[in-house]
Design goal:
Largest sheet: 4 strands, antiparallel
Structural class: alpha+beta
Distance between the termini: 25 Å
Strand order of the largest sheet: 1-2-3-4
Number of domains: 1
Mean pLDDT: 86
Low-confidence stretches: none
Number of helices: 1
Order of helices and strands: EEEEH
Amino acid sequence: MAIQEGATEQWTKSSYSAGNGACVEIKSPTPGKVAVRDSKDPEGPALGFDPESWTAFVHEVRNGTFGTV
């Protein structure tokens, strides 16, 4: 499922999740906000980003800027 800014109220697991427990979930319930959390800790904290920052981060991850773990 694609995340639509301001229209995705349910947490959605990353399509890059490998089933190894290292997953993130994202949602965008209101315009101008993207929330990210650890799927292993659904009651834990979430980080908030503006859509431009989140898009830039995802772009850098895809380009391998941060290496692999």
